[in-house]
What does this fold into?
Amino acid sequence: MRIRYSRFLGSLADSVALEDLLAALGDYLLQSGFDSEWAGEADSEELQQAILQALEESELLDEEQRRQLQEAPPEEVGALLRDLAERLAEAGYIRIEEPYSPPTALSSGVGRAGGREAPPVRFEITNKALDFLGFKTLRDLLAGLGKASFGRHDTRAWATGVESSGGSRPYEFGDTLNLDAPATIAAALRRAGLPPPGRAGVDLEYGDLRVHQAEYQSSCATVVLLDCSHSMILYGEDRFTPAKRVALALAHLIRTQFPGDSLQLVLFHDSAEEAPLARLAQVRVGPFYTNTREGLRLARRLLARQRKDMRQIVLITDGKPSALTLDDGRIYKNAFGLDPLVIAKTLEEVARCRRAGILINTFMLAADYGLVQFVQHVTALARGKAYFTTPSSLGQYLLLDYLNHKSRRVH
It folds into this structure.
């Protein structure tokens, strides 16, 4: 049984669109979390506080509704926040461990959200919420780029496929049998002439078969290599949350527009590890160094398993390589960065990626002189591109780079 306060909730809670609320909670749900206990799941009371902040600071409510919220009794505010949290769960955007219990006479305490204490309940965001946040980020990026639509990775070669965009040609073994019926019949008639009177049909031979030509669409395997070192949230700027948003947007783009492509996520810090995109909201920075070489090694191994026309690494970082995994497994660290040993081993791994046919495009969220020189070395060795950008423009650069691949390769 749920208790509703109709005088207040009927006019306020029902006016809040869940998608708009989820978008307003995006930064909270994807935050870096180094200075808090957030790890992709948290107490429901923390969620209610975030909802309250979103209602007060965003455009979810008009001025009159915000005034109602400020003047409402604490128990009504608490009921409103619990109701909105429940609606997010019912819509599949968050997952709650157990149902909310209604307030009773025994629960007289007041929580941080202003209402009675709810039982200890934890929540985590779902794949549906991550997909929505990725879609919203992608839509915003496309709007900023002036792009209304986009296709797959087109090339200047021709192949036989489902969507025809060119003339037909004789069928060859191994072609997709996307038959051009009129051209096939015409070829048979040219060879054998019209059938005799009283005989129906046309005699076809193997050489008469004609198939449509379609633009060859290449496939691409991508590994996003994301820096999780401490510097990603230092110096008064959170670089990590925008990077996570861009990864979500890229995942949504590939899933919906380039289904033949693949995307994997590798986190690098003192070492490196693969992380499923479904757990991206839980990814946190930490008191780590920057082991770029280990991240490249893992990304190269993952891409070696992919049978795609293009293989690339998208490196997102803001710091100099400052750690190295030695042959005996120990991690050598130099907090000052640009250590000659670390740099040499990192560039050796870049060269291995190039020999394996892997393109490395670097998106650098910093631009100090020493770092520029290092990135120039990486770019020259990998024959990729380097972008010195900011968290606010990272998504536009990365998206443009990915979409431009569709006209940069010939098969």
Summary: The chain has 13 helices and 15 strands.
